[in-house]
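Practice set, problem 2.
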Amino acid sequence: MHVDTDDGVLEIRFDRPGVLNAMSQAVATELAETIERADPDDHHAIVISGEGDAFSAGGDIEAMAEPPSPPRESYEEVTETFGRVVEAMLESPVPIVAKVNGDAIGAGLAVVALSDIAYASADATFSCAFVRVGLIPDTGGTFMLPHIVGLRAAKKLAFTGEFFDAERAADLELVNEAVPADELDDRVRETVERLGRRPTDVIGMTKQALHENMARHWREAADYENTLQVQARGSDSHEEGVAAFLEGREPEFDE
């Protein structure tokens, strides 16, 4: 992961282009730690993007192929890594802007949903692809997605794992706007500069109020999500989904 600060902007870039910026537990931990260090006194915005042609292809399938830990240990692992990303992004008093320069799949899509503002390159592709490897949406997906796109749309995206383009993502309000690839940097820069002209402490308080006033407190939703994810990680569907991905074939889930 590449991290830099430039003129009050904390820039975070997934830097595993060889695997389309897939997120391992180590990457998730580093992402959370970096966001937690953001200070409103020093930063007026955080920008998350990806190196190369993808924003993030989601969870690291190679890591998923490893035998799962015992349930309690697995629960702690997911809570302290991808669950920690949820906490860091939703509690950060510094506004987070996702610059979706390429495909955002699975956990990558969830990071976009957790961001406060998001712009996507018009040629980016999205998918809530967890079901394709026998998992439920995590990294906040089970509660942020329906809050953003609506319950019925969220169910369809999560149940089918369908792929959709940036224009559809904008229609669903998963991103604020889909822009031509050569205009993405400028659009994000304009927004970040505008944020720099606003009181960061007030933005932080506004963000906190908006999140606290959701129908259900996100901590409760995150804990339930993590509990179910542990069950999914130990399932035959997850094992088959990972195996099929690695073998380049369609998974054969039990009906």
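Problem 2, part (b): a different protein.
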Amino acid sequence: MTDRRVVRTNQALRAAFRKLAQQYPYHDITVQQLTDEANINRKTFYLHFDSIDDLAESFTTEIADQLLTLLLQAPADHEPLEHPGIWAQRLGEFFDEAPAFYTFILTSDDYSFLSRRVKNRVAEGMAADFQRDYQLSATDAQIGVNFLIDSTMTLFRLYITKQIDLSKPAFRQRLVALNLSGMQGLLALTKQN
């Protein structure tokens, strides 16, 4: 059983990071700022995290784990290409329901390195399923997963930051069409070889 003080301190540090991250570029945040905001001392910070990077990594792990849970839920017939909008729908739900800080991390230019860490964890978690579900080589599964994640996250970033002006249904339709065409092309190529 985890000590309640440890839980409270972790929550205070994470809340401090969420607040400061939305005010300052990552490399301008200091341990002193975090501890002042969390109302703890520096020594206590280092009892919980090795560094600010370690604290930030706890968010990327949390976000990636939630995304993987959503994305790896199999449709009833476990054939994602038969349900091409399922990932777009699930990601839309994620962004609708996720804490604003998750959206900030995944769409912020200053914190794009954390978004890349999330993407890499999600890609790693999905590659084996793609390899199995589509009978792809490990290389082609990795390429397919990264294509889908990169293109999808880029389009969501454009949509969320209002760089494109589309209704939610129109956005989803375009996202599904682009991702489906890309996957169909990869599957066709691998069947030729």
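Answer key, part (b): Residues 168-192 form the longest helix (25 residues). The chain is about 75% helix and 0% strand.
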